[in-house]
Each structure stands twice: as C-alpha cells, then as structure tokens.
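Run log // design_07
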C-alpha cells in the first residue's frame, strides 16, 4: 500500500499518520497537520501550568517530560499518534516515561489532574488514563532518549524513520502495544486506526 499524508484540510480529529508511514520528513508530517493546529494561547491555562516547561519554577519540577507545543507535535509524529484524547494520553505518558524519572506519585498526580482539573476536550476518561499509564511504562522501558530533551528543529528535513533510529524509538515495542490497545478499545477510533 502506498503511504500518503492526510490532506491539509483534514479535521484535527481525523488527522493521523500511522507509525508505518515513516518515509516522510518530520516537516512534511507536521505541515499536513498545520491547518488546524492550536497555538499555545489556545491551550487552557491549567493545561499550560501542568504541561508547559516555561511555567516550571527553577527549583521545582512537578512533572517530568514537559515540552512546548511545537515539540509536543513532533513527538505525536514520531510516535504515530493523532490528536484525539487517547493519542494525547499516549504521547504525554510516553514522553514522561522516557525521562526515566517519572515515579508512581507523579503518574497518579498527573492522571488525577487530567481527569478532574482539565476542561472539556483536554479531560481524560478512564480509558485515556489507562493508556497514559501504559505509555509511561512503555517510555520507561524503552531505550530511547528522553523525548523532552531533543532539539527537534535539527531533524525537520529528515525522514521519520531515521529520526526514530537516532533517538532510539523502538517501533516494534510501540507496534506491540498498539495491537494490545486496538484489542482493548474496539469502539475507539484512535485505537482502531493505529495499525
């Protein structure tokens, strides 16, 4: 099957570039999603306070793995996830886990905040929370670099496959989890389109 990128007018809920479509450059994948991309100011303050590193105090790090919005979108592309809540849960969890510094308390605190403090479309369901927890574990056992430490701008013109190799992102590990997720959530669009 010939791999193609989503049309630029694709609604953000439908945007997804599967893990196997790895021949495109990071820039190409990001540009296919740019039409509907939120700006940092569109993100509710509570979400920014928790997830954006610019709000961290120098001596306090509440959640490991915090990244800015542009880097977060790069991680979506590298992990083969769209922008639905289950995708967000996976990307955030995997990024936190990849730091190898996320402890159980931090994981529980983030899961609680995303479930009870986040507004509307940012709020995690029970299923989203489970995917987040699974992804934290996957990121932890992965041998990849801490995804929050990468300067993604230097990789924009490289194929996704090459970037994954350089960063140590194990697609076989992620694909194995995607099969499990697909089986667990048969009614979820996000989970069913993964493979």
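design_07 sequence
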């Amino acid at each position: 099957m010939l791999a193609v990128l989503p049309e630029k007018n694709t609604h953000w809920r439908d945007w997804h570039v599967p893990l196997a479509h790895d021949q495109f450059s990071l820039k190409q994948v990001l540009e296919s999603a740019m039409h509907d991309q939120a700006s940092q100011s569109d993100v509710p303050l509570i979400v920014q306070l928790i997830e954006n590193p610019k709000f961290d105090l120098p001596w306090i790090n509440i959640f490991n793995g915090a990244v800015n919005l542009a880097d977060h979108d790069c991680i979506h592309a590298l992990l083969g996830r769209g922008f639905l809540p289950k995708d967000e849960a996976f990307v955030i969890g995997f990024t936190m886990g990849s730091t190898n510094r996320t402890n159980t308390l931090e994981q529980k605190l983030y899961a609680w905040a995303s479930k009870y403090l986040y507004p509307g479309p940012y709020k995690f369901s029970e299923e989203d929370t489970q995917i987040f927890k699974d992804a934290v574990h996957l990121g932890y056992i992965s041998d990849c670099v801490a995804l929050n430490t990468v300067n993604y701008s230097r990789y924009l013109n490289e194929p996704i496959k090459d970037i994954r190799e350089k960063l140590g992102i194990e697609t076989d590990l992620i694909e194995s989890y995607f099969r499990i997720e697909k089986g667990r959530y048969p009614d979820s669009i996000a989970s069913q389109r993964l493979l």
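The CA atoms of residues 183 and 192 lie 8 Å apart.
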